[in-house]
Amino acid sequence: MNATEKDPTFEALLEHLRAVRGFDFAAYKHTTLMRRVMRRIQMINIKDFKDYLDHLEVHPEEYTQFFNTILINVTAFFRDPPAWDYLGKEIIPKILAAKKPKDPIRIWSAGCASGEEAYTLVMMLAEAVGTKPFQDRVKIYATDVDEEALTQARHATYDTKDIESIPEELRNKYFDVVNGHYAFKKEMRRSIIFGRHDLIQDAPISRMDLLVCRNTLMYFNAEAQARILARFHFALNDNGYLFLGKAEMILTHAKLFAPVDMKNRIFTKVPTVNFHDRMVVMAQAGDAVAADQLSHQMRLQEVAFDAIPTALVAVDRRGNLMLANDQARFLFGLEPKDMGRPFQDLPLSYRPAELRSMIEQVYAVHRPITLAEVEHSLPGDGNQYLDVQVRPLPDEGNQLLGVSISFQDVTRYHQLKEEIHVVKQDLETTSEELQSANEELQTTNEELQSTVEELQTTNEELQSSNEEMETMNEELQSTNEELQTMNDELRLRTDELNQVNTFLNSILGSVRVGIVVVDRDLRVLSWNKQAEDLWGLRAEEVQGKFLMNLDIGLPAEQLHDPIQSFLLGANPYKKMVVEAINRRGKVIKCHITFTPSIGPGGELQGVVLLMEEER
Questions:
Q1: Distance CA 440, CA 444 (A)
Q2: Which one of 157, 241, 336, 349 has the fewest beta carbons within 10 angstroms of its own beta carbon?
Q3: CATH number of the domain that 388 lies in?
Q4: CA angle, corner 80, sides to 76 and 86, nearest 5?
Q5: Mean pLDDT for the chain overall
Q6: For 368-401, what is each residue's pLDDT tens digit?
Q7: 298 and 387 together in one domain
Q8: What is the pLDDT of residue 88?
Q9: Count of alpha carbons within 13 Å of 544, Cβ hemisphere only?
Q10: Which residues on neighbouring strands pair with residue 393, listed in sequence order?
Q11: What angle do CA 381, 387, 389 make, to 5 degrees?
C-alpha cells in the first residue's frame, strides 16, 4: 500500500479515533501520520487498516501502543546544546533585565513529552536567578497530548543513559539517586505544572515570557501551524520570546514573530500596532489685519489649497459642497457652479464610494473614517485606486462645522502590493515546500533514532533473555539430576512396596476368614478372596464404595453403630454375630470381629472386619 494514497479505510480509522477517543488527527501531516500507523500495523502482523480498526475495537489496550507510535516522544536534556547555550547566555538575561526583582516569570514548554525539556528550563532558570528566588518567582507550564508521557514526566525519574547530556555539576545539584535511578529534586519540581493540552483545540496559556516548542510544529500541516503560531502570539507578552526546534522555520509569519537568532531558532513577538494614514490639516488665520494683508492671506490659502496634490473637498454641516481643490475638480469633473450645491445632488456623493453614509457616521462618532483602495474608473479604459478619508472639522468650541473628504491616489501602491503579493505567495510556497522537506527529513531522522533505540533495547532484552535461559537451563539440569536421584529412590521404594504387597496378599489369601478394611468414612479399602467367596463381589467392584450401600446379603445397618463406636475408641476388638445371606442364597450366621487399622503415626485410620461363617 502506498502511504500517499487517500485510503477510505484509513480515513475511517481516523474518524473512529476522533469519535471514540476525542483525538482529531486532521491537522497532522497526512503522509507522516499514515506512515506511522502502517508501521504499527506491520509490528503486530495485521493486514490492513480495516482489520486494525476491528483489532482496536476488540483490544482496547491497543490504543496506548497506538498513540505511543503516532506521538513520537523523542526528547533529551539540553537537546541541541548550542541553542540552549544561546538561550542561557543571551535570552534569559534579557528576560530578567526586563523584570523587577520580585516580578513573576512565566514559561510554557509546549509538547514537553517525558519532561526533559521542562526540567532543563528549571536548571537554567535556577542557575540564573538562584534557587530560592526561582521557587518564589518562576512558574513553568509543561503540556503535551500524550497522557502516558506526562505521567512519566511527573515521576521525574530517569536512567543513567537519559542524563548523560547533563553537566556533572548540575546532575549532582538537581538529582537524587533512588534505587539506581536519577530523580529530579522534589522542591524544584514543584515549580512545574504538567497538564494535557491540545495545541489545535485548547485555548493558549497567556502572559508568557518564554515559550519553548521544539520539533513539534513540524508534525502539523501549514494551516494548523498558522493557527498554532497565532495562539503562541497571543500567549506571549509583548517582549516575549519563542524557542523552536532546529527543523522549524516561520519565515512566512513575519507579521507575528521576528527572528532574534535564526541559527538557533529563537524569535521575538511582533507587537500588534494599528496604523492610520493621517492627512495634513489646513490652518486658517483669524487675526484682524489690514484689508490688503487679509486679501493676500486669503489668496495664499486658496492657492495653497489648490496646490495640494491630493484631491480634497469640504462639505459644511448643512450638507453643501463648499470647497474643492484643483485636483478634486479635475478628478471628478467639478465646476465653480457646483460650489454651494447640496453634496447629495452631485455624482461625487456616491461615486467612486457611498460618501453620504460615511459623512453621517463621522458626525455620529466624531472621528475620521477611511475606505482603503476604492476603485475609480477613469475616462477611457483605465482604473485608479483611491484611499478615501472623511474627517470631522470642529471649531474651537469643538462644534462640527462640516467634514473634509480626501482622495489619496494609491494606484501605484496597489499595483506594487499585488506584485508583492504574487512574489510573496511564490516565496511562501517555496519556503513551505523547503520547510516541509526539512521537517520530513527531521521526522525521518527522529523515527530512525527511535528505531535504533528500540533495536538497542530489543538487543539488550534478547541478551538478558539469553542469560536467563542459560540460567534456567542450568537449573533444569540440576533439577533433572535431582529427579533422576528421586526416580532411583522411588524405584527402590516401589520394589519394596511390591514385595510388601505380595507378602500381605499371601497372608490375606492364607487366612480362611473374610477380611474387609474400611476407612473412617466407611469406604472399602481392602476386600480379600474369602470375602469374595462369602458375599459374591470381587474386590474391584467394591473398592472405594460405601459399605452401608453394598447389597451383599450382609445386614450392614447393624454394623453402622458398632463401627462408629469403635472409631470413637469404645469397645476395641468387639465381636458380634449377625444373620446374613451368603452368595449362594443360604442363610448363615456370620461372626464379625472388629480390629483397628492403625496408620504409620499410630493414628486410627479405619476398621478391619473379620467375617466367618458359623459351621
A1: 6
A2: 336
A3: 3.30.450.20
A4: 125
A5: 83
A6: 998 888 888 776 667 888 889 999 998 777 788 8
A7: yes
A8: 93
A9: 1
A10: 402
A11: 135
Count of residues making up the chain: 615
pLDDT at 274: 35
| d(C-alpha 202, C-alpha 346), whole Å | 54
The DSSP result for 495-539, as a single string, is: HHHHHHHHHHHHHHHH-SSEEEEEETT-BEEEE-HHHHHHHS--H
Contact 37, 70 (CB under 8 A): yes
Q: Which of 457, 480, 501 is the last residue of a domain?
A: 501
The pTM (predicted TM-score) of the whole model is 0.51
CA 467, 473, 477 angle in degrees (round to 5)? Answer: 150
Write the DSSP assignment of 341-388 as a string of letters: SBGGGSGGGTSSS-HHHHHHHHHHH-S-EEEEEEEEEPSSS-EEEEEE
Give the Cα separation of 122 and 170 in Å (integer).
11
Which DSSP state fits 282? P
34 shares a domain with 90: no
Copy the grid coordinates of residue 160: 543513567
Q: Cell 541541541 sits at which residue?
A: 80
Query: Has residue 274 been placed in a domain?
Result: no
Same-domain pairing of 450 and 315: no
**67-109-441 Cα angle (round to 5):** 60
CA-to-CA dists, residue 267 to 248, 274, 515, angstroms: 12, 22, 104
Instruction: Write out the three cell numbers for 365.
Output: 462618532
Number of H helices, E strands in the chain: 19, 20
Burial class, 284, CB count within 10 angstroms (exposed 0-12 / middle 13-18 / buried 19+): exposed
Other C-beta atoms closer than 10 Å to the C-beta of 530 total 21
What's the CA gap between 40 and 591, in Å, rounded? Answer: 83
Beta bridge partners of 514: 611
Residues 248 and 340 in one domain: no
Side chain identity, residue 162: D
Residue 526's DSSP bridge partners are 517
pLDDT digits (tens, 9 = 90+) for 110-154: 989 889 999 999 999 999 999 999 999 999 999 998 888 899 999
End-of-domain residue from the set 351, 376, 404: 404
Q: Taken in order 130, 132, 138, 142, is the CA torsion positive or negative?
A: positive
Q: All 3 cell numbers of residue 414?
A: 496597489
Contact 533, 552 (CB under 8 A): no
Cα 326 to chain centroid, rounded = 68
- Pair 606, 517: CB distance under 8 Å: yes
Q: Are 78 and 84 in contact (CB under 8 A)?
A: yes
Q: What are the Cα distances from residue 249, in Å, to 203, 212, 231?
A: 23, 14, 16
CA distance 605 to 612: 23
- Residue 554 exposed, middle or buried by CB count within 10 Å (0-12, 13-18, 19+): buried
Number of domains in the chain: 5
Domain range for 558 is 511-613
CB-count exposure of residue 538 (10 Å: 0-12, 13-18, 19+): exposed
Question: Does residue 106 contact residue 141 with C-beta atoms inside 8 Å?
Answer: yes
One DSSP character per residue, 179-230 reads TTEEEE-HHHHTTEEEEE--TTTSPPP-SEEEEEE-S-GGGB-HHHHHHHHH
Question: In what side-by-side order are the strands of the sheet with 105-110?
Answer: 192-196, 138-144, 105-110, 208-213, 236-244, 266-269, 257-261
CA distance 102 to 81: 30
3-class DSSP state of 256: coil
Give the span between the Cα atoms of 78 and 275, in whole angstroms: 41
Q: How is residue 44 written as a grid cell? A: 503486530
Cα 14 to Cα 33: distance, rounded to the nearest angstrom: 10
